[in-house]
Amino acid sequence: MAEETLWLTVSISVMLYCFRHYQDKLLLFGFSLYIFGQLFDVLDGVSFFANNLFIRFDTGFKNLGFIVICVSLFKRVYEKRNLIARLSAEIENRVALQSQLEFAAMHDELTKVQNRKALFKRLNTNAGKCAAILYLDLDKFKQANDQFGHATGDKILVEFSTTLSERFGHNNIYRLGGDEFLVLLENMLSPSEVHNVEQELSLDLAKFNVGVSIGYSEMTKDKSPDHVINLADMAMYQCKSDKKRLARVATRS
After folding, report:
1. 83-94 tens-digit pLDDT
2. What is the pLDDT of residues 31-49, one digit of tens each?
3. Which of 14-34 are b and which e, b meaning 16 or more Cβ less than 10 Å from the residue's Cβ?
4. Which of 22, 79, 195, 199 has the highest CB neighbour number within 10 Å of its CB?
5. Could you tell me which of 7, 53, 6, 74 has the C-alpha nearest to residue 34?
6. Per the confidence metrics, is the pTM higher than 0.70?
7. Dihedrals φ, ψ of 183, to 5°?
8. Number of helices and strands (H, E) in the chain?
9. How far apart are CA 149 and CA 131, in angstroms?
10. What is the Cα–Cα distance from 198 to 193, expressed in whole angstroms?
């Protein structure tokens, strides 16, 4: 009788605890059945109820209550597992979306190379690792775009950015806008080397009846990234206006 009373007390305590935290009707129903079974066991120990027919089925209440409790707990575990799976999927989706947004913020949508924002972020943090820059602008691109359509113009830009990526490394190529690109170099180039780059790229673009003009400028401690880019930009326009098509090298002034 003392053992049954102990189990009755424990059952009631567990039921009250679960009622406070879970508010689960199925779980409460199972605990109720189980407690009734325990209660009948206690009453069964009293001689007055010993011959009562109803008391003979008290064990069934406990078993049924235990089954309902197990079903309810399994239901809760299943729901929790599904909830965790949904939360994990949601987190993965948000991480993927965040990565896409970060990529879009730093890359050109058409060519997939980095954009102006990414360029200045790198120059402001790792400018010391860059020795020089190439400033490139396509010649006769507008005419080709107008003559053959925007689809061809997009194809020219994509192929040109791919060529630059293969030659100088994808992480060193930046599209500044329109048909203007910039390349960060880890090593300085001589004027003849810059000219060779210009000739090779122009030869590759000849199938579209498009050429390229290149300006070159070297990074130094006494020049800001903006100043170096401006020097290369001016050198590029000098190259574009030069009938000999020689790439210009910006002076340090």
Report:
1. 888 888 899 999
2. 666 666 666 555 555 544 4
3. ebeebeeeeebeebbebbebb
4. 195
5. 7
6. no
7. -120, 130
8. 8, 6
9. 38
10. 9
